[in-house]
Amino acid sequence: ASVSSKDLRDAQRIKAMLHFIHGNYARHLTLKDIAGAAMISERECSRCFQRCFQESAIGYLNHHRIRVSAGMLLETQESILSISKQCGFSSPSYFGKLFHDMLGCTPKEYRRKATHNQATPNSQ
Question: pTM of this prediction?
């Protein structure tokens, strides 16, 4: 099957927007900022993300931030507050809520489970 020009255009736009998100997730980003990275309207940006990921651009941004923060919780001793700020969350409570919604536990529980599993590899 050949790739349509629309699919190709979406792929180029998504690539530009993902590059922008991955490079700037720590900053306060808006839909306008993300759309601007691909030089398209906010509506087209939303449609493009919906077509490609079945989620909004901001939803993707938040998922990326949570993935990065989860890695930082495991790899650093930084405070949860510091990690939430470094990952672009202005509100630690919103960070905690999103983290719990996406990963099923609080950042503190996530870190504790991981360090517990490392400390007792032969248990169970």
Answer: 0.88
